[in-house]
Every structure is written in C-alpha cells, then in structure tokens.
Amino acid sequence: MADLIARNLSVEAGKATLVRDASFRLARGELVALLGPNGAGKTSLLRASLGLEKRASGDALLDGTDSEKLSPMQRARRVAYLPQQRPLAWPNTVRDVVALGRFAYGAAPGRLSAEDADAVERAIKLCDLGSFVDRQADTLSGGELARVHCARAFAAGAPLLIADEPVAALDPRHQFRIMDMIRGFVDEGGGALVVLHDIALAARYADRMIWMKDAQIVADGPPAETLSEERMADIYGVRAKVSGNSVEIEGAI
After folding, report:
1. Is the confidence at residue 84, as pLDDT, over 90?
2. Which domains are delineated in the chain?
3. Residue 138's beta-bridge partner residues?
4. Quick one: pLDDT at residue 104?
5. 243 — phi, psi (to 5°)?
6. What is the 3-state secondary structure (H, E, C) of the chain?
7. How far is 186 from 82, CA to CA, in rounded Å?
8. Minimal CA–CA distance to 135: which of 148, 125, 122, 123?
9. What keyword terms does UniProt attach to this protein (predicted)?
C-alpha cells in the first residue's frame, strides 16, 4: 500500500526552526488539507517529507523507503508534487506540458510509448483540456493553466498527490474545478495532501485537516473534530462562526 509517513520530523535553517517534531501519514483514499498561517512551516514540511529539503531530525518514508534516498524518477513514480511556483521554462503546447508527467518512465514529449500516450490522454480528459491541447501553455488563463499542471501530475500515474496551494489566486469557480479534480483522483483510489488557505473550501473537500502553527502540527483529524471557532482564533487570530462545514470570518481578534 502506497503511503507517506513522517515521524518526528524537524527542519532548521540556521538558528531558525521551520518544522518541529511533526508526524503525519498520507494514504490512498483520503484527501488531507494542510492548514496554517503564512510562515507556519507547511511548505518545509512537505518538501522535507518528500526528501527535497534536508531534515534536521526525524524520518520520512515514501512507500516504505527513506524519501531522501529516492532518485527523482523513483520519487515521481510514488508521488506527484505540485509546488507553489510552477514556472514554464519555455512555451510548449498543453499536450507537451501534460506529457512531462511521464518523465519518470523515461518518456519525453514527442517520444511517448502507447502506454505513456494513453496516460496523457486520460489526464487531458480528466481535466477537461481537450479543446486546449494544441494551445501554447503561456497563452492560457490562470485557471486553465492550473488545470494543465494538475493534468501533468495525474499523467504520472502516481498513487499520491501533494499540491502546495493549487488554487492560489484563482476565482471561486476555478477553485472548485481544481478541488473537484483532486477529489475525483482520491475517490478513484489516490491519496492527496493539499495546502489551502480557504478554510471553508478545505472543510468542503477534505477527509482530514492537519493544522500547523509556529512550526508545529497542533491538530490532525476530520473537519467535524478539528474545525471550531476556538481553533480559528488560535491558529489565525480571527473571530469566526463555524456551523458544520460552514465558516464565516467576522474579523481579527
């Protein structure tokens, strides 16, 4: 069973502690929202868990293997990672950008095996990009480009997806479209860990919420157990009304 397990993981930068003694697990069949204010340590936790950022202590296992010991191709077969910054180094067609998701299998745009091509086509269909496949990616809107990057991740066929703020700067409609696609990936047997700042959106889609504050995980559980007015005050310093999965921010404390 593919999973990501972090145990007592800490990350330091000079004298600063970016993550302190963090433990969590991500497995197939669940969509987990990682929440917390800016600077809480969310991105460092993701990168260290994947072996992309050096750990000061603790360990992280990706499908049973120390993530720091995996090659880029080995890692990409286990987990698809969408970082905050997703620049395109040069203009490419949408189809070619999605095909980059197959690099872990030795594929390259224009040199796809039948299996690679099928995976790319499935990802394009899943993300509703059929009318864009021949467009240059740098001509797309933010919402369209976000779907392209999701399709690239899905094309990899990895059992897990980790996405760092995949809906940042998108309008509400496109936020729902991206989260619907990630939810669909999970419902079909994948596992996803997604950094979000919209608490209501997280509560709508997530099976679990992991809350971070001051470099530490302070809560991990279903929305019904971890989302509360007290939690919003503690984590974000805001007054909020919470009713089920509905959250209304009233103002700063």
Report:
1. no
2. 3-252 (3.40.50.300)
3. none
4. 79
5. -135, 105
6. CCEEEEEEEEEEECCEEEEEEEEEEEECCCEEEEECCCCCCHHHHHHHHCCCCCCCEEEEEECCEEHHHCCHHHHHHHEEEECCCCCCCCCCEHHHHHHHHHHHHCCECCECCHHHHHHHHHHHHHCCCHHHCCCEHHHCCHHHHHHHHHHHHHHCCCCEEEEECCCCCCCHHHHHHHHHHHHHHHHCCCEEEEECCCHHHHHHHCCEEEEEECCEEEEEECHHHHCCHHHHHHHHCEEEEEECCEEEEEEEC
7. 16
8. 148
9. ATP-binding, Nucleotide-binding, Translocase, Transport
Least confident of 91-95, 158-162, 213-217: 91-95
Q: What is the pLDDT of residue 192?
A: 98
Nearest Cα to 39, choosing from 1, 69, 5, 13? 13
8 A C-beta contact, residue 249 and residue 238:
yes
> How far apart are the C-alpha atoms of 158 and 125, rounded to whole Å?
17
What backbone phi and psi angles, to 5 degrees, belong to 50?
A: -85, -5
CA–CA dist 195, 125 (Å, integer): 25
Which segment of 38-47, 100-109, 164-173 scores lowest on mean pLDDT? 100-109
13: which residues sit within 8 A by CB, 6+ positions away? none
Strands 216-221 and 65-66: unpaired
**Rounded to whole angstroms, what are the CA distances from 144 to 15, 119, 197?**
41, 20, 20
**What does the alpha-carbon distance between residue 163 and residue 202 come to, in Å, rounded to a whole number?**
13
CA distance 128 to 122: 10
